[in-house]
Amino acid sequence: MNEYALPIAIANTATVLTGGAVALLAYRAFRRTGSAALRAVAVGFGVIVTGSILGGGLHLLWDAVALGVALQSAVTALGFGILLYSLYAETSDVTVTTEIRL
Predict the structure, then answer these.
(1) DSSP state string for 50-89
(2) Taking the alpha carbons of 69, 71, 74, 80 in that order, is the dihedral positive or negative?
(3) Residue 93 carries which DSSP code?
(4) 25 by DSSP, 3-state: which?
(5) Stated pTM of the model
(6) pLDDT-derived band of residue 99, with 50, 70 and 90 as boundaries?
(7) Which residue among 56, 58, 86, 98 is least packed, with the fewest CB closer than 10 Å?
(8) What Å distances lie between residue 90 and 19, 40, 56, 82, CA to CA?
(9) Do the beta carbons of residue 65 and residue 2 sit within 8 Å?
(10) Which residues fall within 8 angstroms of residue 38, CB to CB, at 6 or more apart?
């Protein structure tokens, strides 16, 4: 291990927790509405979280800092590409129902 292990582990943990929370909330919203855009948001954040786990794992388990950073950066770029797609996804087929309870 090197002097960067702890800061990298802390940053990746924060990424996994916050990105995972966003992905979970987007997935729940997708299940509720059926929106393709929300599905893409959930997938995009899931990909980013996966990249963080893979990059951190490479760094911590095999001490391959450069490879971990390269992998994490590539997967993060893919995740942001999916998020960009979600901004352009058609949402005209979405049906939202509201239930009012008294």
Answers:
(1) HHHHHHHHHHHHH--HHHHHHHHHHHHHHHHHHHHHHHHS
(2) negative
(3) T
(4) helix
(5) 0.82
(6) confident
(7) 98
(8) 24, 11, 35, 14
(9) yes
(10) 26, 27, 29, 30, 86
Find out whether 90 and 39 touch, Cβ atoms under 8 Å. no
Q: Output the pLDDT for position 65.
A: 85
Answer whether 51's CB lies under 8 Å from 74's CB.
yes
For residue 99, give the 3-state DSSP assignment.
coil
* DSSP designation for 90: -
d(CA 82, CA 61): 28
Exposed e or buried b for every residue in 28-41, given b needs 16+ CB within 10 A?
A: ebbeebebbbbbbb
Q: What is the pLDDT of residue 85?
A: 94
Structure tokens at 42: 């959930």
